[in-house]
Design goal:
The complex is a heterodimer of chains A (114) and B (113). In chain A, 0% of the residues lie in helices and 50% in strands. Chain A has 114 residues and is mostly beta strands. Chain B has no helices and 12 strands. The chains are: A mainly beta (114), B mainly beta (113). At the A-B interface, strand 4, strand 5 and strand 10 of A face strand 6 and strand 11 of B.
Amino acid sequence: ETGVTQSPTHLIKTRGQQVTLRCSSQSGHNTVSWYQQALGQGPQFIFQYYREEENGRGNFPPRFSGLQFPNYSSELNVNALELDDSALYLCASSLGAGGDYGYTFGSGTRLTVV
Amino acid sequence: AQSVTQLDSQVPVFEEAPVELRCNYSSSVSVYLFWYVQYPNQGLQLLLKYLSGSTLVESINGFEAEFNKSQTSFHLRKPSVHISDTAEYFCAVRRAAGNKLTFGGGTRVLVKP
């Protein structure tokens, strides 16, 4: 059973650029959630995708968008990058969208915006 | 909305000594409670969780946490720490009917020999 895989592991972008981060969910999981973890802080919920539909969103602007594919993998897209977008982006997959399903986290993508 | 407060940002502790990491939450509805551990340059790993039932939950590596509804707390304890327990620990809550985790700011545990 594979876990959650995120790519790339590290990324450096220039302010104003666009970035796409990718996540492969754990086998059998149909739900993917994305979190932003700024340096020295706890993760913040960006949004969740359940069966290819957005299923909840945190307090992030529309330039943060996502997709979920039929194989339940997911992408996080960030447009017009700002310096404050520098963070560790974590993907978590689960068997369902709520309830007592456990979340499996990937190792994250560290994004640096310069 | 839920919120989580971890009262200590850093906890230095000597090897084989006990440690307690404090977590308080606020919520107007029923919640599930979690502790996650993050080792350097890694993602989050679930340490233990409280969903219902017994208020004392244990992990396989010696940690335990107790849910106290009246004090809205979910403190994490370990009676004897190892060097390998050096990591950052995050307390999190989720509405029982919800889909997002709300995390505290984290507590960095540094175990000294």
